Recover the amino acids of this structure.
């Protein structure tokens, strides 16, 4: 700021400290004033930009991206850069330190060599380089020592539950059970236990006539499966919210509405950058309602399949479910009717989360893959699950294989085996119950009967 630099006008800036104590030492050090002059005003605390909560881009910028099909970039000091998460219109996202975020905002572009190219010019027209404004280690140490003390943390800890007037004026319902509000668009009674029986169901020896809801390549992340960012107006979740009287400006994010299963099931596989091989020409959460050719939303296809009681599966490549652990990446496919995921490999925690929702993770045998077996997702799939029916709960990892028959549209069958990735006895128990939620509820029921 002292050298006359300013952020470029097309750059959207925001500052979201991790806690209020950060703004305390910003003020004490005097750092808040130059940051605000550059456009870095405090917009909130905690998760904002990295979860898609920094708001829309300026309309002229958004219009230019759409009309020119630009590959826009973001730089942020958060901890997530999944596709479509920072902003659905921004394709490239780079994680870096806060000073570098400011530097790139001053430069206004990402394709710059900060060691050789200037960030801009001062009032006299002289070039200003990053090295000219980068603080020394000694300067940083002096500012930190003079600006941070333990009382800042103690004071904020004492006031952490104070809240503002809006928070303190909220009416809190009484009673020992949650009072579901049918008109709420944030918290709704989920359907995870619909049709659940008191007894543990038998695993059926065959799963027949299953259809592929989607076919994915390698490294499909949990953010592809269940995005946490902003909700687009034209998406199934956006249509649901509008139908319930919510204005697009109040949509908020998928992450904020994770207590509403109606929103989250519509958001499953709805990442704007996801690629489904069943509709290679379309980007986003679309598929085909087989055997048809028309591209429809994955949610609409799932609803149609469920109405006809057609079980669903997902075909994928390597590292299915990589990235952040996310419970809705298991819950969402479960609510869409997915019974099986066949992949070349799974991320460890997500594989366990699938079992926790009663979804069977199957792994292609070594050498097999979607491509090597010439699968395109248009087949009808039959599974011989009899090896699971023989379980006594003492299985070891890698013991079981199931036989799969994929019947092509011309009637030709493709036979292959797949490894069951239920790796522990407890996971087998969860799967037998239909998932961990059903398992826990049955255990509580047994405990209640014993105590009563």
């Amino acid at each position: 700021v002292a050298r006359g630099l300013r952020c470029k006008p097309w750059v959207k800036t925001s500052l979201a400290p991790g806690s209020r104590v950060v703004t305390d030492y910003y003020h004490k050090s005097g750092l808040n004033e130059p940051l605000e002059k550059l456009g870095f005003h405090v917009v909130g605390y905690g998760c904002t930009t990295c979860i898609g909560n920094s708001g829309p881009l300026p309309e002229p910028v958004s219009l230019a991206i759409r009309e020119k099909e630009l590959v826009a970039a973001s730089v942020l000091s958060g901890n997530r850069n999944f596709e479509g998460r920072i902003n659905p219109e921004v394709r490239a996202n780079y994680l870096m330190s806060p000073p570098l975020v400011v530097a790139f905002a001053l430069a206004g572009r990402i394709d710059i060599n900060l060691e050789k190219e200037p960030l801009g010019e001062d009032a006299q027209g002289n070039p200003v380089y990053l090295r000219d404004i980068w603080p020394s280690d000694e300067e940083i140490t002096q500012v930190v020592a003079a600006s941070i003390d333990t009382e800042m943390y103690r004071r904020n800890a004492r006031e952490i539950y104070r809240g503002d007037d809006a928070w303190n004026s909220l009416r809190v319902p009484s009673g020992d059970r949650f009072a579901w509000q049918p008109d709420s668009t944030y918290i709704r009674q989920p359907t995870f236990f619909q049709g659940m029986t008191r007894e543990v169901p038998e695993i059926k020896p065959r799963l027949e006539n299953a259809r592929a809801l989607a076919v994915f390549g390698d490294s499909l992340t949990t953010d592809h499966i269940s995005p946490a960012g902003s909700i687009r107006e034209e998406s199934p979740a956006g249509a649901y919210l509008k139908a319930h009287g919510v204005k697009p400006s109040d949509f908020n994010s998928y992450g904020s509405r994770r207590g509403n299963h109606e929103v989250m099931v519509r958001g499953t596989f709805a990442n704007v950058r996801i690629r489904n091989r069943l509709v290679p020409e379309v980007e986003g959460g679309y598929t085909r309602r087989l055997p048809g050719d028309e591209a429809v939303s994955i949610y609409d296809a799932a609803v149609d399949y469920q109405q006809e009681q057609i079980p669903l599966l997902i075909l994928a490549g390597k590292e299915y479910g990589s990235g952040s652990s996310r419970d809705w990446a298991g819950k969402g496919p479960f609510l869409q009717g997915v019974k099986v995921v066949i992949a070349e490999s799974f991320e460890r925690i997500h594989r366990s989360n699938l079992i926790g929702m009663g979804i069977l993770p199957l792994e292609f045998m070594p050498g097999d893959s979607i491509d090597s077996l010439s699968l395109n997702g248009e087949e009808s799939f039959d599974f011989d699950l009899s090896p699971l029916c023989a379980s006594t709960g003492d299985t070891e990892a890698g013991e079981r294989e199931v036989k799969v028959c994929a019947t092509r549209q011309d009637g030709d069958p493709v036979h292959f085996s797949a490894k069951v990735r239920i790796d522990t006895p407890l996971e087998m128990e969860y799967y037998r119950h239909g998932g961990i939620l059903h398992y826990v509820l049955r255990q509580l029921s047994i405990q209640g009967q014993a105590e009563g």
Remarks:
- The chain has two domains: 20-158, 206-226+268-451.
- The first strand starts at residue 73 and ends at 76.
- Residues 392-397 have pLDDT under 50 and may be disordered.
- The radius of gyration is 26 Å.
